[in-house]
Write a structure and sequence with these properties.
The structure is a homotrimer. Chain A is α/β, with parallel strands linked by helices. The first copy, chain A, has eleven helices and eight strands. Chains in contact: A-B, A-C, B-C.
């Protein structure tokens, strides 16, 4: 597995993102929409935050990939999310579900579970959110996980198998599974948890990689690797969470093939 | 008063915020939601921007503190704000009202005045907003105060006494009153007025301190002190309003007990 | 033309913005509201993101200028936009239409075309958006132009003549026309396209300049010049798109008359 998902595969996919400039539609929360768009631009993708009814569906049919993040799911956006997920499925546009705070809060929990019928290509969340999505968890504290990634691994594998999707559990070590295999990415930095959107942005980066990768497991792992290595590079010069968020954008734009080869830590 | 609210009390409360990681629910305006969440994270708190109906109330009952900021009060958010304020009062969760542009604009003025029935633990605004909340003012220019803090002090003291709340009037010198006492905080820097959310973020910081302090006056003063001292530290290296906003987050994360002791300017 | 719109005219208008502190009401998209408010503050203006029904109209009547940007036009905001445009026209408040992704997406296309009846003082968009507004284009990719500015020049000139407005087409070289004349601004930097809001912020800056300039063509050109020269200055020290966005705010606050005189590139 680590052979097929090694550094050269990551590098190929990163180069593909940068050369093909995928159009990533984001229906995401109000808090992180700016940093999410900026991260996609820095990576070399084009963001489009098209999230109103009657536009979200048509756009999902032509976008390169779609992100649906349940962080602040107002009524109008919930309608647009359902419309976009249905259109993405119908058009075979890859799409990512990021079930922010699912399991804790009732409106988004019902929404996210309902969206599963449109077969997300990948699901990214922390352990509490993945458990909450499957109904197995006690819920987190908003975006904070109260469970370690390992605690959600069985639920994630079952979810991945049943839906034919990829589940990425974020944590100090990220766990990515297709139900049969589990890839662990140990890159990253604690400052990612000290900026808002540290996890949400990864969902958008995964969408960008899904747009260029035939294999969803490889694409999800590659996105996680590139993002967490950029975070490591950003942490080198950051003086705190404010400068870290700025450096992260700079490093997403400048992370090199060599950085990937030298820093990759898969298991 | 300055004895009980001196540097050691501020330091104790700052340490308590950092060690207890309060969960601060923010129903705030769309412009500053990102910087507000980032400031809370930098300070050591956990933000949750839960602001939709049917989620805002249940969450306010379990959050450590709640912020309600009227900067962009859409219809759905107004419902959620009323729900959250009622739940916070019922659950004895401390909550802060930040009446942005109240007195100038009709929808939010009616909303903010109505929210007073749920007994906010603290109210933070500029002089024009405090006067507008009490019906005494002619209104500001959006978030700009046209009145000096002193001009709103009588209205603030009356409001504080009648509601049993703390009123913090932001300005070059911040005035904090419980109706009987007035504490003046002379820390801060003009660059706080050159970044969006310079005042709004303080409302969230006050909520974080209310979560750990038994005495609302002390907590409000301590929050103001820590925030405005972080601003002073940020201004040392800032080259303009863009880098100041970045440095402010870094300094909220790194401000030390020694910084507080050396820089505190209460009156 | 270049004589009347030369460096001294730009400098005069920049000084007028800084000395008069215009109040710029922004009804803009959720992604860029923070950076837009920060850019206006850095420039020396006062932003107010008043965009709900029953407040947007009354505020537009007293604001110095209004920006309407169709990037994320939710139903409630669309009502407020119509209200604000009508009030701005009635009160002779200058206002800018930024038709983000118009021509591509149906809801905002209908909205933007309808808003033309309220006679915007200026319209700013990329070539695809200007063509989309007039019904002549095939649409862009969200905020990405698929057409060069020159391709939209005829449509822009016709639009400007028919409505008595100014049309600014953003691109590597910005084209500004009143229907009779075309001014080309060759200042700027590619990093403006690597941050979200690079174009949207210019719409707000144009509104700020319209507030102080009697002649809408001069004001639109001056805004474009100041903004794109600030971008050039920011690019000198930026290490990537993250630091560029920070430096841009710093440079908007510090750009000098001398910078304008030395760097101006009009044609």
């Amino acid at each position: 597995v680590t052979a097929t998902l090694g550094a050269e595969r990551v590098v190929d996919l990163l180069d593909a993102v940068r050369s093909s400039v995928p159009l990533v539609q984001c229906l995401t929360n109000a808090v992180v929409s700016g940093v999410t768009a900026n991260a996609l631009l820095a990576l070399g993708a084009t963001p489009a935050m098209t999230d109103i009814p009657d536009e979200a569906g048509p756009f999902a049919a032509v976008a390169s990939a779609v992100l649906i993040n349940t962080g602040t799911p107002r009524a109008e956006q919930r309608v647009a999310m359902t419309e976009a997920a249905a259109a993405a499925q119908a058009a075979a546009t890859p799409w990512v579900l990021d079930p922010v705070a699912v399991g804790t809060l009732p409106v988004r929990t019902a929404l996210a579970r309902d969206l599963l019928r449109f077969s997300p290509t990948a699901i990214r969340g922390n352990a509490s959110e993945i458990l909450g999505l499957t109904g197995a968890g006690v819920g987190g504290r908003g975006v904070d996980a109260v469970d370690a990634p390992e605690a959600a691994l069985d639920a994630a594998a079952t979810l991945a198998s049943e839906l034919g999707t990829i589940v990425a559990i974020s944590g100090a070590t990220d766990h990515v599974t297709d139900g049969a295999r589990v890839i662990r990415v140990s890159n990253g930095h604690p400052l990612l948890t000290a900026m808002t959107g540290g996890g949400c942005v990864l969902g958008a980066v995964i969408a960008a990689f899904l747009a260029v990768g035939d294999d969803a497991l490889s694409a999800t792992v590659a996105a996680t690797v590139v993002y967490t290595i950029a975070a490591e590079l950003a942490a080198v010069t950051a003086r705190g969470p404010g400068s870290f968020a700025v450096e992260l954008l700079d490093c997403l734009a400048t992370v090199t093939d060599r950085d990937v080869r030298e820093r990759l830590r898969l298991a």
